[in-house]
Specification:
3 domains; 4 strands; 4-stranded antiparallel beta sheet; alpha+beta
Length: 276
């Protein structure tokens, strides 16, 4: 979820493309077993005489007739084969629905961002960043300046607020967080952006590599498709153009067999490969 937000996806697309499919997988996988259990239970009750009235057409009645007419084995075989094929088809249909569940995509409209007066500015400037949760301060007066081409490391003990500060800079904290202070990305005032404008910034001008690579990729989508989301959203690339650009990006970070990795599932990559 947080990785999708960092890529610039709007909330409606995150819900439709990532949250709903993951929730539906469990539902669609479980439904066929509910049906098979119900059919199996009804068949057993009919066979034992506790279900539908005697003589009513049902699989249990057919199985009972096969039991009572052992000289006609095709009756029992027909009941068994019908039940087996029906239950198998239910399972296959459920699996097919799960595999075919692929949400639609949508494009985000370009937003006009507020601009700072034209003057040479650093790439990123943070002044007196304060973060609190439900009124409890957790980050106090953090200031930093980052110029193009520089690498800046925030170092501190566990729980000192490093991750909270980084997430707060790009508005990825939960709703109970309060963020104060100046935040400028070049000439763009980050403190005054709407959610739609943030979607145009994140994943486009600002990238984010999370420290949990095992949970930052959606297990239901192949690697190439997830890279293509950002390319489609921010650069308008689709189809073969998006695939070629995705391959070039994988090669740029020195990943071997880029063509194969585009078709790979996240669980087929190591943690380091996922981070790249």
């Amino acid at each position: 979820m947080r990785a999708a937000k960092a890529m610039g996806l709007p909330s409606r697309l995150i819900m439709w493309r990532h949250v709903l499919p993951n929730a539906m997988v469990a539902t669609l996988t479980f439904i066929p077993f509910l049906f098979t259990g119900a059919i199996g239970t009804l068949t057993a009750l009919d066979f034992l005489g506790f279900g539908l009235p005697p003589g009513a057409p049902s699989l249990g009645e057919l199985a009972a007739q096969g039991k009572n007419n052992l000289h006609a084995p095709w009756l029992g075989i027909t009941a068994f084969m019908t039940l087996a094929i029906m239950l198998s088809l239910l399972v296959f249909i459920g699996e097919g629905l799960r595999d075919a569940f692929d949400p639609a995509t949508c494009n985000s409209a370009k937003q006009t961002l507020p601009r700072r007066p034209s003057m040479p500015e650093p790439l990123l400037h943070i002044e007196n960043l304060n973060v609190s949760f439900d009124g409890t301060p957790v980050v106090h007066s953090l200031s930093l300046t980052l110029h193009a081409g520089e690498t800046l490391a925030i170092v501190g003990e566990s729980g000192s607020g490093k991750s909270v500060s980084a997430l707060g800079m790009v508005n990825l904290l939960p709703s109970n967080a309060s963020i104060q202070g100046e935040r400028w990305l070049g000439d763009t005032n980050l403190a005054s952006l709407t959610q739609a404008q943030w979607n145009g910034i994140r994943g486009n001008r600002v990238g984010f590599i999370f420290q949990e690579p095992m949970t930052s990729l959606n297990p239901l989508h192949r690697v190439g498709k997830q890279i293509g989301e950002a390319l489609r959203l921010h650069q308008g690339l689709r189809g073969q153009a998006a695939r070629q650009r995705s391959k070039a990006l994988l090669e740029q970070v020195k990943l071997p067999r880029a063509d194969e990795l585009l078709n790979a599932w996240p669980h087929q990559l190591s943690g380091g490969q996922r981070q790249r």
